[in-house]
Amino acid sequence: MASRGDRFKKAAVKAAKQARKWAQAAAREADRLLKEAQKRAQDEKRRKKVKAALKRTAKVLAAAGRAAIVAGVAAGIAAARAERGGKSTKKRKR
Questions:
Q1: How far apart are the first and last CA of the chain?
Q2: Exposure string (b/e) for 73-93, b if CB count within 10 Å is 16 or more?
Q3: Structural element, H or E, at residue 39
Q4: How far apart, in whole angstroms, are the C-alpha atoms of residue 54 and residue 41?
Q5: What is the C-alpha separation between 4 and 31, in angstroms, rounded?
Q6: Rounded to an integer, what distance in angstroms lies between the CA atom of residue 51 and that of residue 63?
Q7: C-alpha to C-alpha distances, 23 to 6, 7, 18, 64, nearest whole angstrom
Q8: 53 with 36: CB under 8 angstroms?
Q9: What pLDDT tens digit does each residue of the chain (94 aa) get?
Q10: Residue 84 and residue 80: Cα distance in Å, rounded?
Q11: Do the Cβ atoms of 64 and 28 come closer than 8 Å?
Q12: Helix axis angle, 44-84 relative to 4-38, nearest 10°?
């Protein structure tokens, strides 16, 4: 059975991989958006399409940011627990 520290490290790695995945998706979306924005938006339909792409990009970037925060927190928790030697966090009764 995996130790508590190993489980937290595994969770941190998983969260970091997820963050990387979202960051790559955000980069792809941003590249696609740039190509779309470089085209001249002459009619209303094209303007609406660009606006929708901007909204989608904003959502993807927000999700990537949240995933990165989660990965950072998980990694910090894993590192802190690994340094302490895996002691439990139960409060002591006084």
A1: 32
A2: ebbeebeebbeeeeeeeeeee
A3: none
A4: 14
A5: 41
A6: 19
A7: 25, 24, 9, 5
A8: yes
A9: 668 778 888 888 888 888 889 889 888 988 888 877 776 555 667 778 888 988 988 888 888 888 888 888 888 888 888 888 755 555 656 5
A10: 6
A11: no
A12: 160
Place of tokens 């190993």: 6
Record the tokens describing residue 26, joined without a space.
Answer: 């955000």
- Distance, in Å, from the CA atom of 86 to the CA atom of 6, rounded to the nearest integer, reads 9
Using a cut of 0.90, tell me whether the model's pTM lies above it. Answer: no
